[in-house]
Automatic annotation (TrEMBL):
Residues 116-270 form the Protein kinase domain. GO terms for molecular function: ATP binding; protein kinase activity. InterPro entries: Kinase-like_dom_sf, Pkinase_fungal, Prot_kinase_dom, Tyr_kinase_AS. This is Protein kinase domain-containing protein. Pfam families: Pkinase_fungal. Residues 1-20 are annotated as: Disordered.
Length: 270
């Protein structure tokens, strides 16, 4: 991924051969991995050239993977598609609230929130699959608390994670759940940033979380694991009793352990 952070586009040249489904999947996967490494991009294009005779152009975002038909070099449209591909190199589809910084030894990101707050020197902690929610976790190595979580969520989704966390902590810090500092729908040009495919639309959301943790599989003993699982059950029981909220996504990846001995739910793994 460290190399993918600085790629412009993904492309592949293959020898003359009849294209197979596996070849198409492999090229699409390369473009998807590239998008995973570039959270500042909304979508990205790739090209697949075969023996200097024909090619396909691919387009990937959080909703879809498009692949053009096979275009022969003798076709008139052959000229227009490469021009559009090269144009996209200089005019990428960017989330303008994220800035990629490549002046240091390693790539970092800066994020500006809608209220003007800015977070610099952020590194990638996790990137989710594409297409999909594209869950992305940013963290600051020198900040013990701040984590930024981004997702492209389905417009039909009933609940927004930020709103639920606000309810949970409405009467003060609720033990066992990450604390929320800020939540928002990300905007570009004053409009909510969204990608769509037919009847499906995904909006980009952002949370600023004030807790970090280590994965459940970092636990060293069976005794400690059982204590953590008991705490998880107790926290979810009290959550339902207090706010009538049922946590339906309790999985190893959603249980984190803090070095202070408190156990929190979340999706950030260090």
């Amino acid at each position: 991924m460290s190399h993918g952070l600085n790629w412009r586009r993904s492309g592949k040249i293959t020898p003359k051969a009849k294209p197979s489904e596996n070849m198409r999947v492999k090229e699409a996967a390369d473009v998807m991995y590239h998008l995973q490494a570039r959270p500042d991009l909304i979508a990205i294009a790739g090209v697949w050239v075969r023996h200097n005779e024909e090619y396909n152009v691919l387009f990937v975002d959080a909703c879809k993977v498009y692949c053009s038909r096979r275009v022969m070099y003798t076709e008139e449209v052959c000229k227009r598609l490469p021009y559009a591909f090269v144009w996209s190199l200089y005019h990428p589809l960017l989330d303008t609230s994220i800035t990629r910084n490549t002046t240091n030894d390693k790539t970092t990101f800066s994020i500006t929130l809608s209220d003007g707050a800015r977070y610099d020197n952020l590194e990638l902690g996790f990137t989710g699959s594409v297409p999909g929610r594209r869950t992305t976790i940013f963290f600051k190595p020198d900040d013990a608390c701040t984590v930024i979580k981004e997702q492209y969520i389905d417009s039909d989704r009933r609940f927004f994670e930020g709103s639920i966390l606000k309810i949970i902590h409405a009467s003060g810090d609720f033990p066992g759940f990450v604390r929320l500092k800020w939540s928002e729908y990300v905007k570009n040009g004053g409009q909510r940033l969204a990608v769509s495919k037919r009847s499906t639309t995904r909006f980009k959301t952002r949370l600023v979380i004030q807790d970090k943790g280590t994965p459940l599989d970092s636990v060293k003993t069976v005794r400690e694991l059982l204590m953590i699982l008991y705490d998880v059950l107790e926290v979810t029981r009290i959550l339902h009793r207090t706010w009538h909220i049922i946590h339906r996504d309790i999985s190893p990846g959603n249980i984190l352990v803090t070095d202070r001995g408190a156990h929190i739910h979340g999706t950030y793994a260090s």
